[in-house]
Design a protein that fits this description.
alpha+beta; 3-stranded antiparallel sheet
């Protein structure tokens, strides 16, 4: 009978412990949910314009601007939507846009804000990096914002955004778009882990996902951002699966790619994989299954000058050969269109956008609402690349040079509906799309050729996107590389690497070096709330286990004596 009491007591204590532990777990879950809710409400309140104040030493500010191409990080304080942080890292960011702004005489750089660059663990409800994008090559000022909303419409994993009125040392610098960084916090939020390799393919071998060899070191354009290892074992398997025509769903979340492809094709987003640039996307190894994550959407709606497409041609962009040039240059897209199930799912995602977000009434209402929300900030923007008149034309008024955003989406939606219905062709015998202005590359040499879509960026911006950069003479290039530019063609990715050898030193970008500058111990919000909750729960669990274990042993001893 005594032993039965002991067993019952142990069982009761165990159940009590499980109940308490479950309550703590539920509390932690609630805190995590609350933290995410605060991120949505405070860090990225999507449907409003927040104020962002950056304060830094004038000498540091001028040094950052002077060395923008090297992406120099400087120390600053920031007040973001009413929340203040000390000793954060600020640096210019971008690729072609960074070079263009640097050569224009403008100081309207996109900026990366790194809260824990100088102070370890400083964060904003778990967020450590925020991008302040300058709306380059987008006179409408809303393209990137809309692109991320369209991804959300498809329930795709995508960065959160909000508009910001940016002030530097008390001076209004214009309307920017805040975009969530794809980093550890982003991965944990969407996938529950950040343990796998995160790739951001850029210029280099393998960024087109074409098979080279089984040696991961051969894929120099695919180095993980969050790991020192360059073996690339997992991603090599992905590329080999694409090459061999294997079932991609064994190694790739195919829907993550199809959602990107649907949004990108509907909007004719060609500053991307689909134009031969093979960039502006992430690949994340989520426990052996790769996830495709979209990035850098400011040039959607045919905003990429090197596409070679007029707005009318872009509105007729083929949905089943959604590339510039031949399909065999795009391994993963070619593999997708060999699978009927994938194509059906891709078409369904396109229909969701066309019938929903891009439907005439819904899209018009969205554009007008955004216009009303930001127009006052745009009107007084002192650093904008465009006039206020160009901003309004880009949204609402067609010109001889191109279509307004409303007209473009209307014509694009109508054309896609006809392609989906088989009324007009959706393919081109594997030859993809080719514009009348060039063989995959705009010949006009002036980003202002479509002022309502591209804007007039000034003399310093000319030739930066549609032609060679300033300071580079076509006569100095080797014959093979020179031929591409003379024919108005886009060089293959590996040939673009050769162009780097002929760039003036000031145009060659360098990555930031972590740890530059003096560390300090100042900061306002320098503890991650979720981490605190986990540590606190761990301590509580240990304490409960200790107390209850001692109580169980003592009570058992007492029963045995009785």
């Amino acid at each position: 009978m005594g032993w039965m009491k002991i067993v019952c007591t142990i069982l009761c204590i165990f159940l009590l412990l499980v109940s308490i532990d479950g309550g703590i777990a539920q509390s932690i879950h609630s805190m995590n949910v609350e933290s995410e809710s605060l991120i949505d409400k405070v860090v990225f309140p999507h449907d409003e314009v927040i104020d962002v104040y950056i304060d830094l030493e004038e000498d540091s500010y001028h040094s950052m601007l002077k060395n923008a191409m090297s992406e120099e990080t400087v120390i600053a304080d920031i007040t973001y939507n009413g929340y203040s942080f000390n000793s954060v890292g600020i640096r210019p960011k971008g690729n072609s846009s960074l070079r263009s702004v640097a050569n224009s005489g403008s100081d309207r750089y996109s900026l990366n804000v790194d809260l824990n660059y100088y102070l370890d663990e400083q964060n904003f409800y778990g967020i450590t990096e925020i991008n302040l994008n300058n709306c380059f090559s987008d006179p409408s000022m809303i393209a990137e914002y809309i692109g991320y909303e369209m991804l959300n419409e498809l329930d795709a994993v995508a960065s959160r955004t909000t508009y910001a009125a940016l002030y530097i040392n008390g001076e209004y610098k214009g309307l920017y778009l805040c975009v969530e960084q794809v980093d550890e916090a982003f991965l944990k939020h969407h996938y529950g882990n950040a343990n796998g390799e995160l790739y951001k393919p850029e210029m280099g071998a393998g960024s087109d996902l074409e098979y080279i060899s089984d040696n991961g070191l051969d894929y120099t354009g695919l180095e993980p951002k969050n790991s020192s290892s360059k073996s690339n074992t997992a991603i090599t398997k992905l590329i080999k699966s694409i090459e061999d025509g294997d079932d991609l769903e064994n190694i790739l979340n195919v829907d993550s790619f199809l959602k990107y492809l649907a949004m990108s094709t509907v909007t004719v987003h060609l500053d991307s994989y689909q134009s031969g640039m093979f960039h502006n996307y992430y690949l994340y190894n989520n426990n052996g299954i790769f996830e495709w994550i979209s990035w850098d959407l400011n040039m959607i709606f045919n905003g990429f000058p090197m596409s070679g497409l007029t707005d009318k041609e872009a509105a007729e962009f083929l949905i089943d050969e959604p590339v510039i040039g031949t399909m065999d240059n795009y391994p993963i897209i070619e593999a997708i269109f060999k699978n009927e199930d994938y194509v059906t799912r891709y078409h369904n995602y396109i229909k969701i956008l066309i019938d929903g977000y891009c439907s005439e009434t819904q899209f018009s209402d969205k554009v007008i609402a955004l216009y009303e929300m930001i127009k006052d900030y745009v009107e007084i923007d002192p650093t904008s690349f465009y006039t206020y008149n160009q901003f309004e034309e880009a949204l609402f008024q067609d010109t001889d040079e191109g279509l307004s955003l409303l007209s473009f989406v209307s014509q694009r939606s109508e054309n896609i509906t006809e392609q989906l219905g088989g009324v007009i062709p959706s393919t081109n015998n594997g030859q993809g799309n080719k514009g009348s202005e060039g063989k995959g590359m705009r010949n006009d040499r002036n980003m202002g050729s479509h002022p309502n879509r591209k804007g007039n960026l000034g003399d310093g911006m000319e030739n930066m996107m549609g032609d060679l950069p300033p300071g580079v003479s076509i006569e100095d290039l080797p014959e093979e590389l020179r031929t591409y530019f003379e024919n108005g063609e886009m060089p293959p990715r590996d040939k673009m690497m050769e162009l780097m050898d002929y760039l003036p030193e000031e145009l060659i970008p360098f990555g930031k070096k972590k740890g530059q500058g003096q560390k300090t111990n100042e900061g306002v919000l320098n503890k991650e709330e979720n981490l605190q909750a986990n540590k606190q729960a761990f301590k509580i669990n240990i304490g409960l286990l200790s107390v209850l274990s001692l109580g169980m042993i003592s009570f058992s001893h007492y029963l045995k004596k009785k």
